[in-house]
Amino acid sequence: MRIKDYPVVALDRFIEATRDSGYKTTGSAVAELVDNSFEAGATAVVVTIDATNNSGKREVTFSVKDNGCGMTPAVLRLALQFGGSTRFNSRVGVGRYGMGLPNSSLSQSRRLEVYSWKTAGSVWWSYLDVDEIAARKIVSVPKPKRGRPADGLTAESPSGTIVRWCNCDRLNPKKVKTLASKLAIELGRIFRRQILAGKRITINGERVKSIDPLFLHRGENLVGASRYGPPLSYQVQVPGTEDGRTVSTVYVTFSELPVDQWHGLSNQEKRKFGISKGAGVSIMRSNREIDSGWFFMGSKRKENYDDWWRCEVRFDAALDELFGVTHTKQGIHPTDEIVDILAPDIERIAHELNANVRRKFNELKDAEISSEAQSRAESRDYLLEPPRSRTQTLTRYGVSPSNRSTFHPSVTLPGFAYRIEHRVLRELSFFVPLLSEREIVLLLNEDHPFYERVYVPIASSASLDVKGTLASLELLLFAAARAECAVTTKSEKAYAGSLRESWSNVLAAFLG
């Protein structure tokens, strides 16, 4: 009786399943190839994306060529094997598991070809093909053969490697021009330190420029931020070492964006330059960005003011276990041990920087001429009966009284001062009216759809006609806030607040 064999991997199913191995974008897959090139000593990496029509069908091929040290036939064959690597579990460079080349390539294409040479004119090549593997036509990496690179690719450097993706069915985006543009942004940020050190990456002939999310170094980004204090450094015990003396250093750098210079940029410009929605920490492993997000912040919530400062955490591969580095080098899952080391200082400084930014914006607002709506409301408020309640409610929302709320009979009109403040609120209302001794503050909720879709576009417009619309809109809101502040009894206040919240919910629903 024949005993059925159960291989560890069902090859035909594995090759299809591994294509969904978690690369977030085509750029993150390409970054694996650039890693290999730089680790092979390359100083230049050339990315080429071609689209051709073959019998009416559009086909895209993708190639990455470098001038690194190249590979022998044996090393080439090993590199195409899943888990095959001459540096398996190495902590010296950026690679570690030997999955990058086949995993990233087949996540984007159905056929991978690799050409490599250590001396001019002696090119070896081999391949992996998803369809052939699934059909069991090949069950091992084909033995490398001598040959010339396909489709006009040339091996002009003394040594090097060309990785070619054919039958690309998962590129995102699919349009070559759009893909090249997005790829330049991703690679420019991921490899910013290598580019600044002189490494060269080109995409379809265009040189990739570095993109610094801290806005400290010149590249394809605004520059003008300043370092906040000296970089912090932490000597961290390397996991698994027996002597107790083997440590690796983690560096933490903060930068503060120039609020006074950049606050006047339009919302579109702030998004374009990476100011808006860019808050958080850039995670650098072995001088290569592998993640970014709201890490090591403890209990601090992210606010819009946090767009105006940045943080970078830099470590070496020796600390991979502590940072929870994924095998695709696209993310971290920090352990409690490294969080306990870094979070106290990072959270503290994050609060300091947030307070600095808030103070600078308040200073700018105090220096600005009152808006048309604010001036008109203050000039007409004396005609209305003063609210009976003078309860101090500003501090609950982190709003400080301004010196305009102090009444001086010789210089101040009778009536209330008016002011608009902006916050990310946990409440559902689009606005919250706040009342102090001599001031009404209209607190706008930046999280409400009406703020982003209607108020911000109107407020940021330079058109005189639109500015008139803004004044009318703000007078409408000032009037609603003023009317609610005039409510006196506890039950009336609760009803007014409930009505405002219900109105805000309906407004959000209508905006969809």
What does this structure look like?
The chain has helices spanning 11-17, 26-39, 73-79, 100-106, 130-134, 176-190, 192-196, 259-262, 267-272, 320-323, 336-367, 372-380, 449-459, 464-485, 490-511, and strands spanning 44-54, 57-66, 109-117, 123-129, 145-146, 160-168, 200-203, 206-207, 226-227, 232-237, 247-256, 281-285, 288-293, 309-315, 417-423, 431-435, 439-445. α2 packs across α6 (176-190) and α12 (372-380) crosses α14. A hairpin with a 2-residue loop joins β12 and β13. It is built from 15 helices and 17 strands. The radius of gyration is 30 Å and the shape is elongated. The chain folds into three domains: 11-207, Histidine kinase-like ATPase, C-terminal domain (Heat Shock Protein 90), CATH 3.30.565; 226-367, 2-Layer Sandwich (Ribosomal Protein S5, domain 2), CATH 3.30.230; 372-511, no CATH class. It has 512 residues and is of the alpha+beta class. The longest helix is centred in the C-terminal third of the chain and has 32 residues, at 336-367. Mean pLDDT is 87; it is low at 405-413. An eight-stranded mixed sheet has the order 5-4-3-6-2-1-7-8.
